Description:
This protein is of the alpha+beta class and 392 residues long. It is 70% helix and 9% strand. It contains 15 helices and seven strands. The longest helix has 40 residues, at 183-222.
Amino acid sequence: xxxxxxxxxxxxxxxxxxxxxxxxxxxxxxxxxxxxxxxxxxxxxxxxxxxxxxxxxxxxxxxxxxxxxxxxxxxxxxxxxxxxxxxxxxxxxxxxxxxxxxxxxxxxxxxxxxxxxxxxxxxxxxxxxxxxxxxxxxxxxxxxxxxxxxxxxxxxxxxxxxxxxxxxxxxxxxxxxxxxxxxxxxxxxxxxxxxxxxxxxxxxxxxxxxxxxxxxxxxxxxxxxxxxxxxxxxxxxxxxxxxxxxxxxxxxxxxxxxxxxxxxxxxxxxxxxxxxxxxxxxxxxxxxxxxxxxxxxxxxxxxxxxxxxxxxxxxxxxxxxxxxxxxxxxxxxxxxxxxxxxxxxxxxxxxxxxxxxxxxxxxxxxxxxxxxxxxxxxxxxxxxxxxxxxxx
Length: 392
């Protein structure tokens, strides 16, 4: 395949990359990662267009290789910038500008501008640095929620790094062999690698975007919008898994349920907006009073559930009382006025003979009902035997 055909294919694939990633960015303009990746596609397209034009007609030296190499480095830098935005790591826009400016100024050296091998040796370290940083960030966050989608991008960048490093070593150690091959073969090989790199990178970035959308939709479907706690759908999934795990490993399993005392009066007296504020306030105070890795659920209205694992009964009681006391002692501020809220709390732990987590939750709900009958703003703990006696 001749160099012109490869250049034309690179232009077409770069255009596809720029159009596809830009279209994905337009579906969510707040996605900074997709913005940077779409700009990277534009830079790849502009670079490949310059190379294609230079292959068929004479172009001023200022455009190629100076501008084409600068755009090429900027494209790699924007890929890195998108990755750091995706992983919520450090912002790399400054480093992209520095690297691109370095490449631009570097070409004003006559020795570099007039020799293909010199240009390669000049820009290869820059490309290696940018791509190694990209792999570093992807590897660092491989266990995050989106980590599984990073492997495709990481693989294609690693393959490109191997080629770049191998080419640099060949230029340094075997210049005679390269001179024998000729510039056309070197440029053809590099064009093929760039072609494969752009194709693989486009597919990998689309996969990352799709995976992120999937994780976001799954999180939204399992999360209560008002409080940020898990919802009833998430309770069904998490409780089944945790109950089975605790049974298998002989660990304790418990529910703490609570709801806001006289919440209807709050809505009637202050309005539903204040009622929503009260629910968010209760959720925030209760979360601070529990452990970070406990499960928090809002089942609707003013009803909340906390799922605990691996604790003694005394510890479950202590957490329940801590939640009740923290809510009682932390009023909701409403300008110059404050509203003191309280909750009634019920507790239950897994016992021998419990067939599922629903049994434990039902016992905790019965304990909550007992707390309400007992005057509200208190905690109750019920065992299976005590519940039988109460119902009897």
